[in-house]
Specification:
Elements lengths: L2 H12 L1 H14 L2 H13 L2 H8 L3 H15 L4 E3 L4 E3 L1 H28 L4 E7 L3 H4 L1 H11 L3 E7 L2 H10 L4 E4 L8 E9 L1 E6 L10 E2 L7 E5 L5 H10 L6 E6 L2 H9 L5 E4 L10 E7 L5 E8 L5 H10 L7
Parallel strand pairs: 3-4, 3-5, 8-12, 9-10
Antiparallel strand pairs: 1-2, 5-13, 6-13, 7-11, 7-12
Helix pairs in contact: 1-6, 3-4, 3-5, 3-6
Length: 322
Amino acid sequence: MTGQEDAGSVSWLRDRPQRRAAAGRLGAMVSLEQVRGFVTVAEEGSFRRAADRLRMTQPPLSRQIQKLERDIGVELFDRGQRQVQLTPAGEVFLIEARRLLALAEGAPDTARLVAAGGAGKVRIGFTAASGFGFLGRFLNHVEQGLPGVEVVLREMVSSAQFENLRSGTLDLALARPPFDRTEFDCELVHSEHLMLAVPAAHRLAAEGPIAVEELGGETLLVYAPGPARYFADLVAGILAAVPYTSTHELTQVHTMLALVAAGRGLALVPETAGHLHPDGVRFRPLDGVDDPVVLYAVWRRDCANPALDRVVRLLGSLPPAQ
């Protein structure tokens, strides 16, 4: 190999994107036995001492290294009379070779950890409103209890979460009822009151509880009965005897609050929506309304993800909201 070719090989290995690609292809190109032999020769500086350490004879080890050099297309060692030294390309390759061996040696432990649910990935769906009070607390609890588990979040309405559970693209849903309890397992994870969101300048913005009857004749923002079925049914039941006007059907609580602030109407929203502190909006409790807003953790009965089992068990030890 000429000096120009060697320099080109070193440049190729040191280029970061190509180094990552080379590391990814390394296991397919060569055997772990070859890589381990290369690292041992590099550390010993001698084929003879490396062969003794590997408990093999020198000729097979030399052939391993020669084949490795042919496979990757560069010379890794400068074979001098007294000591074998790494070429510049070999020095760079040694970093990737050690990384590959570390991954291979750790793979059994990782596999056992994943099988026990201590590592892996859990895909969690959640409604926008659940993010106001429950989601962050739950994620912190999972991170502390299962630091090896990766959580992937997907925001979507409850009905879409159930469809994604069925298709296997979600492992856990943080969703509102109704859902098929013969198909899914579930656990109630959060319950709260409804509040009335009122423009700051409105006549009902004064502090204190308000009776539902006082909403008669008002304009209310309501929930779309399809994608926001749970809230639509809940609010419709509470306002069944109240004559009111509705102008917009919405699905997201934060959109409702923005329109309340703009004076477009009043809205019944979960208590934790107050955590958003929207300008121009006041929140008042509802007198005599006992219907809670509930949130469930829902998962497929036949889900085979071990990490999900560990996450579900953590639900029982979740600290209460402050």
